[in-house]
Design goal:
Layout lengths: L12 E7 L5 H9 L18 E7 L2 E8 L6 H14 L5 H10 L8 H11 L3 E7 L6 H11 L5 E6 L5 H13 L6 E2 L7 H14 L4 H34 L3 E3 L7 H25 L4 H6 L4 E2 L2 E2 L6 H6 L11 H6 L1 E5 L2 E2 L2 H9 L3 H6 L1 H9 L2 E5 L1 H19 L8 H6 L9 H9 L12 H15 L6
Parallel strand pairs: 1-3, 1-4, 4-5, 5-6
Antiparallel strand pairs: 2-3, 7-12, 8-9, 10-11, 10-12
The structure holds guanosine-5'-diphosphate and magnesium ion (MG).
The site of magnesium ion has 6 residues, from helix 1.
Length: about 475
């Protein structure tokens, strides 16, 4: 997250974000700042009435001052007014004409908002020109570009709302090239990832050669932050998996497993996943708006679908039959462990639900032992697998990894199934070490498991 301390060593690069109302100017700034509180976002026209400044830092060095501006409304009339003025004032440079116009702002109350934009454009090093590609290509854009060009600053068109609008995007690109704006950016809150952010700074680098190094230090800094965020998120998921895989609940003597035992285990798992979800959203500064735009199945910070809902197994392609988990037991998500030996959910199924006797016969010896000695209720393998799959999908949604296609629907329909090949071994290893449940360990095996699972979580492979 960018810092907000002040630093006077170098003047920051001034970048004005301009464009029509609702083109997404404020949203872009929020995304770049990763700050949900910046400015005011609203569907109703003309929310931003004043120029608002915010700063992007690399460490404690201010690199870019971003200026959010009010929407451009009537560019045709403004251009006409400027042309009328050019006949009466002597302007050596187009920017002088803008200055003359600004100095007579009192005469043009209708252009109050536009004048703020013009003033900011003259005072900036570069302009980010936000365009909603869903808008029809109208003459007013030509006028707008003509007016903004008079400031004599590099203009970078930023195409917004590109998800599912690739044809419109192509037309807009062609149109902007006609206006001599060949370098352009794509932005979509839905598909904005670190690569997109990096491209934005790189385009600025090419437009603002003298500030190349400052922008490079920003890119490097953001890259490092990004990697750290990803690692922090993967570590947090590993922690969740450990908590759950290592969970053991001692079952009382002869009475066997009660509904209360199962409910208590399930609540533990739900709560653990809930906390992990909260932490992941926090790590990536995900806001309620982001959650909605990404169509995450999350409401009020909670997953819509319960981890023990049988539909989860189906949705994530886990075959309940293959592990002898069926019906109600699949939903219960339980396993039984005796002296560290997991009996498998099938045993429990027979023992507690009076079903699946063929399986129970196979496990007779273990079952007898189970009823004699101490027994622990554990979280079933499928539940741990589900947690892994759901959290991995969440992580990849939060980081937008691999969503080059900017189609909203594609994101929702995509389901990640694959468990890593050595998954069962790793989970077994976790299960054998209940002491890891609440604290990380310097133990070599623990460290190895952690690196392994983190690498799986962060890799792009076996995705989808
Ligand atoms: N789907 C989608 N909605 C966006 C995107 N950017 C902005 N919006 C929405 O468009 C509306 C206007 O955005 P805002 O940033 O206030 O536009 P501004 O008037 O140019 O500052 C808000 O409701 C935003 O949530 C985007 O990339 N994708
Ligand atoms: Mg705004």
């Amino acid at each position: 997250m960018p810092d907000i301390r002040h630093d006077t060593r170098y003047p920051a690069i001034n970048v004005a974000v301009v464009g029509h109302t609702n083109a997404g100017k404020t949203s872009l700034i929020r995304t770049l700042l990763r700050d949900d509180c910046f400015g005011k976002i609203d569907e109703s026209a003309g929310t931003t009435r004043y120029v608002e400044k915010s700063t992007i830092f690399a460490g404690d060095e201010a690199i870019i001052d971003l200026f959010d501006t009010p929407g451009f409304e009537d560019s045709s009339a403004l251009l006409q007014a400027l042309e009328e003025m050019s006949a009466t004032v002597e302007a050596r440079l187009p920017a002088d004409l803008l200055r003359a116009f600004i100095s007579q702002a009192d005469h043009f109350p209708d252009f109050e908002q536009e004048i703020k934009v013009l003033r900011q454009s003259i005072n900036s090093d570069a302009l980010l020109y936000m365009i909603d590609v869903r808008e029809p290509l109208l003459g007013k854009y030509r006028d707008e570009v003509e007016i903004l060009s008079k400031a004599g600053k590099p203009i970078l068109p930023v195409f917004n709302f590109i998800a599912g609008n690739s044809e419109a995007l192509t037309r807009w690109r062609e149109q902007m090239a006609q206006f001599n704006l060949h370098a352009a950016l794509e932005f979509d809150t839905v598909a904005f990832d670190f690569e997109a952010e990096k491209r934005l700074y790189q385009k600025l680098q090419s437009q603002l050669e003298p500030r190349y190094d400052a922008l490079q230090s920003l890119i490097d800094y953001r890259q490092e932050v990004w990697i750290n965020l990803n690692r922090a998120a993967a570590r947090r998921i590993f922690q969740l998996l450990t908590e759950v895989a290592c969970y053991r609940r001692e079952v009382a003597g002869r009475s066997g497993i009660t509904d209360a035992d199962v409910a208590s285990m399930q609540d533990f798992v739900r709560n653990a996943e809930q906390l992990a979800l909260r932490d992941l959203l926090t790590i990536f500064a995900f806001t309620q708006t982001d959650v909605e735009l990404q169509q995450l199945a999350v409401r009020d910070g909670r997953w819509v679908l319960d981890i023990f809902s049988p539909r989860m197994l189906h949705d994530f392609g886990l075959n309940a039959g293959a592990t002898a988990l069926k019906g109600a037991a699949a939903g219960a998500g339980i396993d039984l462990m005796v002296g560290g030996l997991s009996l498998g959910a099938a045993t429990l199924l027979g023992a507690t639900l009076g079903a699946g006797w063929a399986t129970v016969r196979r496990y007779q010896q273990e079952l007898k032992a189970a009823w004699r000695g101490h027994k622990w209720l554990c979280v079933g393998d499928n539940t741990v697998s589900l947690l892994y799959l759901r959290q991995r999908k969440l992580l990849h949604t939060l980081t937008q990894r691999g969503h080059a296609a900017r189609n909203k629907l594609q994101i929702t329909n995509e389901v990640v199934h694959a468990l890593p090949q050595r998954w069962d071994k790793v989970i077994k290893a976790l299960r054998q070490n209940p002491e890891w449940q609440h604290s990380s360990s310097t133990d070599a095996e623990y460290q190895k498991l952690q690196s392994q699972i983190m690498a799986w979580l962060l890799s792009d492979k076996s995705d989808g």
